[in-house]
């Protein structure tokens, strides 16, 4: 006999278990980043590649916003665009990430060009944008639930990087301060939506798969960084080469 759908509480517990097992704070590259075990060039490679992810977040949110069926939903989701794109030039999360990249020694124009990012980064991020654009609204919203786990990684990242890297300042990491309130707000909304609308076995399986996919997207980006810049340290043609490797 096939088991029926989970209760909302059981579904939430299953979603949180995915984060406990698969969130990218567990990746060896992040362990090195937070523990001070990377050199400046490796930190630059992380900042450069992560910019592509940050810059595509507004695109994936805009694609979902266009599909949302009610004004209430669109108003709720619109704040994400403002958080990342800002309300004026030089504001918002994407602009703050560019300041982070400049703070670790990268040139702004080079970062914005995305010319030096790894193919693994581009493929993973583009796959995430495609999922949000092409799959159901429920799956698209569920894929954002990695934000349930982000306050923990932000706290680890900020404290670890400030403690271990002399070239990193609080101003460099200013991107993260607003995220400590934005991410929980957004996660609460998305979690409430999923708890209310994922009511069949098929829907619940779909939202669990969407969150696993998003965790894989984040993990894959770090796999690419680790392979290119840590071990075995083979930087593919066309990718960013730190000064100490030139």
UniProtKB/TrEMBL annotation:
What are this entry's molecular-function GO terms? pyrroloquinoline-quinone synthase activity
Q: Which InterPro entries match?
A: Haem_Oase-like_multi-hlx, PqqC, PqqC-like, Thiaminase-2/PQQC
Query: GO biological process: any one?
Result: pyrroloquinoline quinone biosynthetic process
This protein's name? Pyrroloquinoline-quinone synthase
The organism's lineage is:
Bacteria, Pseudomonadati, Pseudomonadota, Alphaproteobacteria, Rhodospirillales
Any coiled-coil ranges, and where? none
Q: What EC number(s) has UniProt assigned to this enzyme?
A: 1.3.3.11
Catalytic function, reaction form: 6-(2-amino-2-carboxyethyl)-7,8-dioxo-1,2,3,4,7,8-hexahydroquinoline-2,4-dicarboxylate + 3 O2 = pyrroloquinoline quinone + 2 H2O2 + 2 H2O + H(+)
* UniProt domain Thiaminase-2/PQQC: residue ranges: 13-223
Q: Which family does it belong to?
A: Belongs to the PqqC family.
Ordered alphabetically, the record's keywords are:
Oxidoreductase, PQQ biosynthesis
Task: Give TM regions.
Answer: none
Q: What class of enzyme is it?
A: oxidoreductase
User: Its biological function?
Assistant: Ring cyclization and eight-electron oxidation of 3a-(2-amino-2-carboxyethyl)-4,5-dioxo-4,5,6,7,8,9-hexahydroquinoline-7,9-dicarboxylic-acid to PQQ.
Pathway given for this chain reads: Cofactor biosynthesis; pyrroloquinoline quinone biosynthesis
């Amino acid at each position: 006999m096939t088991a029926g759908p989970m209760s909302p509480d059981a579904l939430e517990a299953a979603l949180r278990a995915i984060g406990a097992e698969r969130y990218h704070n567990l990746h060896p590259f992040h362990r090195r980043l937070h523990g001070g075990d990377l050199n400046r060039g490796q930190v630059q490679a992380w900042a450069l590649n992560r910019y592509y992810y940050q810059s595509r977040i507004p695109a994936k949110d805009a694609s979902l916003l266009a599909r949302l069926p009610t004004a209430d939903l669109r108003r709720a989701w619109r704040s994400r665009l403002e958080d990342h794109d800002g309300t004026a030039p030089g504001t918002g999360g994407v602009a703050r990430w560019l300041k982070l990249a400049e703070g670790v020694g990268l040139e702004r124009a080079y970062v914005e060009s995305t010319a030096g990012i790894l193919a693994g980064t581009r493929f993973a991020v583009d796959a995430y944008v495609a999922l949000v654009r092409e799959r159901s609204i429920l799956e698209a919203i569920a894929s954002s639930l990695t934000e349930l786990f982000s306050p923990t990684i932000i706290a680890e990242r900020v404290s670890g990087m400030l403690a271990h890297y002399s070239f990193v300042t609080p101003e460099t990491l200013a991107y993260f301060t607003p995220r400590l309130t934005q991410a929980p707000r957004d996660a609460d909304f998305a979690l409430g939506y999923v708890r209310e609308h994922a009511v069949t076995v098929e829907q619940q399986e779909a939202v669990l798969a969407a969150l696993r996919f998003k965790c894989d997207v984040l993990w894959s980006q770090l796999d690419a960084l680790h392979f290119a810049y840590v071990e075995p340290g083979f930087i593919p043609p066309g990718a960013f080469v730190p000064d100490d490797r030139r």
